[in-house]
Structure formats: structure tokens, C-alpha cells
């Protein structure tokens, strides 16, 4: 009897949980020195949702503030003192389908891996040491209506590489 009550309660709780839970995680962050003035920064992350197609930007824009409703991922490359890298470029890579040369499309119910690559240089005579890349804005969109959502600053703290050593 107790076993049946436990089973019924477990089933009830399971049915009450939302089935549209979404997943977004940052799994690995790396900073690789290319030479004294250049580095490659890599941030791996995943996105998906149980009930919505999700669209993730392909391109990155430097110094894009959070919650801009942009169609690009915002990032910056800074050192420990807040100095910004001289020249940067960023691109998000994935095996997901590309839509309108602007977004990756993740079908509902699928979790897809993404890799943000950021290349940065500092002026000659300076060192790339102690620079790190961080995502400042990660907008994403749901369904063909492109309902705008974004990660909050507290969530973006996990989208930061270690400093170059």
C-alpha cells in the first residue's frame, strides 16, 4: 500500500513539473596564446528548448551591451585593468542549420552545441597576457515569430574565459 501511494505521489509530482524546460549551459572556456600580441579565446555552450525552436546569432559584436535585442552576440576582450584589446573578431560555430545567414536554428526538443571563437590582438609593444574574453549579451529568439529573450548578467558570468598566461 505504501509503495502504491509513493508511486502515485511521484507520478503526480512528475506531471506537475513544467515540460518546456530549456537548457543553456556553458561547458568550457579557453584562452590560447598565438604570440605575444595575439590570442584565441574559445567558449563552448549549448542551447535548446523542449517546446520552442531556438535561434542563436552567428556573428559577434564587440562592446554590445546586455538586452539590446540585437541579432549578434555581444562580447569584449579586456585585461585585469579594464583595458580593451586593440582588434577583435568573433564568430559562433555550430553544426546547427543556418537561417538567413544570421542565426543558427535549434529545433524544439534538441540541445545543440555552439563554440564562440574570438581572435584578439593588442598593439605592438604590449602583451596579450592577462586579457580574457567575456560575453556581454547573448540574445536568442523563439520560433518563427522571433520572440526575443536573452541571458541575464548573472547567467553571463559563466561565459568568460580565463586570462591568457
Please, could you describe this protein's structure?
By secondary structure, the chain is mainly beta. It has one domain (19-156): Immunoglobulin-like, CATH 2.60.40. It has two helices and twelve strands, in the order αββββββββββββα. The chain has helices spanning 2-16, 153-156; strands at residues 22-35, 38-49, 54-57, 60-62, 73-78, 87-93, 97-99, 103-106, 111-121, 132-137, 139-142, 147-150. The strands form three sheets. It has a five-stranded antiparallel sheet with strand order 7-8-3-11-12, with no helix packed on it. It has a four-stranded antiparallel sheet with strand order 1-2-9-6, with no helix packed on it. A hairpin with a 3-residue loop joins strand 7 (97-99) and strand 8 (103-106). The longest helix has 15 residues, at 2-16. It starts with a helix and ends in a 9-residue tail after the last helix.
Question: What are the main properties of this structure?
Answer:
Immunoglobulin-like; 47% strand; 12% helix; four-stranded antiparallel β-sheet; five-stranded antiparallel β-sheet; mainly beta; 165 residues; elongated
Describe the SSE topology:
Elements: H1 2-16, E1 22-35, E2 38-49, E3 54-57, E4 60-62, E5 73-78, E6 87-93, E7 97-99, E8 103-106, E9 111-121, E10 132-137, E11 139-142, E12 147-150, H2 153-156
Parallel strand pairs: 4-5
Antiparallel strand pairs: 1-2, 2-9, 3-8, 3-11, 5-10, 6-9, 7-8, 11-12
Amino acid at each position: 500500500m505504501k509503495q502504491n501511494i509513493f508511486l502515485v505521489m511521484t507520478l503526480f509530482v512528475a506531471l506537475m513539473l513544467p515540460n518546456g524546460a530549456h537548457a543553456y549551459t556553458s561547458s568550457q572556456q579557453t584562452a590560447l596564446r598565438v604570440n605575444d600580441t595575439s590570442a584565441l579565446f574559445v567558449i563552448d555552450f549549448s542551447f535548446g528548448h523542449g517546446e520552442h525552436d531556438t535561434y542563436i546569432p552567428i556573428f559577434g559584436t564587440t562592446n554590445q551591451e546586455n538586452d539590446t535585442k540585437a541579432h549578434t552576440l555581444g562580447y569584449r576582450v579586456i585585461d585585469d585593468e579594464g583595458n580593451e584589446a586593440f582588434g577583435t573578431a568573433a564568430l559562433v560555430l555550430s553544426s546547427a542549420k543556418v537561417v538567413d545567414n544570421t542565426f543558427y536554428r535549434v529545433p524544439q526538443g534538441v540541445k545543440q552545441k555552439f563554440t564562440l571563437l574570438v581572435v584578439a590582438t593588442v598593439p605592438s609593444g604590449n602583451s596579450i597576457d592577462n586579457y580574457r574574453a567575456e560575453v556581454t549579451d547573448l540574445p536568442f529568439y523563439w520560433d518563427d515569430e522571433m520572440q526575443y529573450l536573452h541571458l541575464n548578467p548573472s547567467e553571463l558570468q559563466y561565459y568568460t574565459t580565463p586570462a591568457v598566461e
